[in-house]
C-alpha cells in the first residue's frame, strides 16, 4: 500500500456527522498561540493490540464503569394475601473517559456514554458534577440521548486537578429505568501542549507551554480524500495497529497490518500516525494520505523518527488543530470535537441551561 489513511473517515454521507462548518470560539488556539509557516504537533491509554480502525467508539479505550445493581423498589400497593410482582424496571450506567487517576492534556473533554436511551436529561445531568482546582465553570452538552460531554469554556489550565462525581444511583433516566452509579473519578491535567497542522505548508507545529518545541514535516489528505479542518483531540494511542480501508468506507484500497505510532483523533477514523511506506520526499512536500496526518517513520516504529518523537511526547487529551485544508470543520461529536463549538453553542446543548 503506497499511501494509508488508516483511519480515514468514511466517504461523504457516511457516519461522521454533518454539522456544517463551525468556528471555534475560546478554544485556546488564538492566532498568536502558534507560529505560522512552521510545523507543530502535540499529543493516554495505550494498547498495542491489532485492531481494525472502525471497531472502537470514541470512548472504547478509555471507558470504566462500576456496576452497582440496586434492588427493585416498588411504588404501588400489593394485592392482599400475595407477594405482588415488582414493576418492571431496568438500570443504566455511564461509561466515562478519561480514566480514574490518569494524566491528560489540556484539551481533554470529559465524555460519558450511557448504555440506555436517556429521556430525562435534566435529572441525569443534575446527577453529574465536575469540580476542579483551580475552580472553573463546567457545562454539559448532549449529543443524542446516549452521550453527554462536559468541558469548560476554554482549555483546562496545566496542573488542574479535576473530579467527576457520578451520583446516579436511583436517578430515573427514562421510564422504569434507574441509575446505579455513585462514584468519583479524579484525574490530573498535565503540561499544555498544542499542535497545528497546516495542510498547505505540510507542517505540524508543536508548542508546549507557549514555547515552540518542534516543526515536523507531514503529509495530510490528498485532494480526493481531504483532512478535516478544526480542533481534534487525541483520545487513543497504539504503538502498532492495523488499518483496513474496508472499515471506513474505502473498500480494498489498503490494508496495512502494522501502522506504527498511531494516535486517534476522530471516531470516523482520522489518525496522526507513522508512515513507513511513502517515499521520504513526500513529507513536507505533498499530501497523499486518505485523510490522516502522516509522519515519517520506520517499519515497526522508530524511536528517533518524527512519528516516534511525537508519539512519546503526546498525551491523550492533547489538541491537534488542522488549518487550510479543503474540507469542512470536523463535527463536534466526531471524537472529542466539542472545541469546535463556541461557548454559547455548547451551553445550548445542556439540559440545564
Layout of helices and strands:
Blueprint: E1 90-92, E2 94-97, E3 103-104, E4 110-114, H1 121-126, E5 128-133, E6 139-142, E7 147-151, E8 161-167, E9 172-174, E10 177-179, E11 182-189, E12 193-198, E13 203-208, E14 211-219, E15 230-233, E16 236-244, E17 255-264, E18 271-275, E19 293-296, H2 306-312, E20 319-323, H3 343-348
Parallel strand pairs: 1-10, 3-11, 12-20, 18-19
Antiparallel strand pairs: 2-4, 4-7, 5-8, 6-7, 8-11, 9-10, 13-14, 14-19, 15-20, 16-17, 17-18
Folded structure, characterized:
The chain is 5% helix and 31% strand. It has 353 residues and is mainly beta. The strands form 5 sheets. The chain has a 6-stranded mixed sheet with strand order 13-14-19-18-17-16. The radius of gyration is 21 Å and the shape is globular. The relative contact order is 0.26. Residues 1-28 and 30-82 have low confidence and may be disordered.
